[in-house]
Specification:
It is built from seven helices and six strands; from the N terminus they run ββαβααβαβαβαα. The chain is of the alpha+beta class. Strands 3-4-6-5 form a four-stranded antiparallel β-sheet. Helix 2 crosses helix 3. The longest helix has 16 residues. It is globular and about 40 Å long.
Length: 184
Amino acid sequence: MPFTVQGIPVVSRKHPVSKKYVPEGLSKRGLVKAADAALTEMTKAAKKDGVTIKLRSAYRSYATQETIFNRALKTYPSVEKAKRYNAEPGNSEHQTGLAADLWDGNTWGDAVARTKIGKWLWKHAPEYGWILRYPPDGKEEITGYIYEPWHYRYIGKEAAAAFEPNTTLTLEEYLGIDGTAENQ
């Protein structure tokens, strides 16, 4: 089971989940029921504003994350660099079915922030229970990961209400927990 604070599961380097952990009730899109419903609601609202939200990635098993991380180890010049951009198996929020990599179907990477979808999500995602999990402005020391303008995390509307539009508040700061002492 994931480490939980105020009813919110937290998965990070400091708070990993086991190899065997699989959330219950994953949708066909790889999200738990509440997250899937919230993504559907958010996608419809965005569409009304002329913005198309596409899901690039949701649930990943431990084994899938292990494959991704091992590939990163071969791609990046150092283990430290690979860890800035990729979660080790057991440390990925994708294993909870509560994380979603969102995009427009064309633009990826940091450039997502400058697209219509990136700007729309940055402003509206909390209204639907989603937060930008790895925000900009030096939050890597807290989260352990670089800014990822595509990586959104479902925490529910009530909790997300504390996240103002365009906020750089992290989940760790909101919950008052230590982020990633094992960051480096």
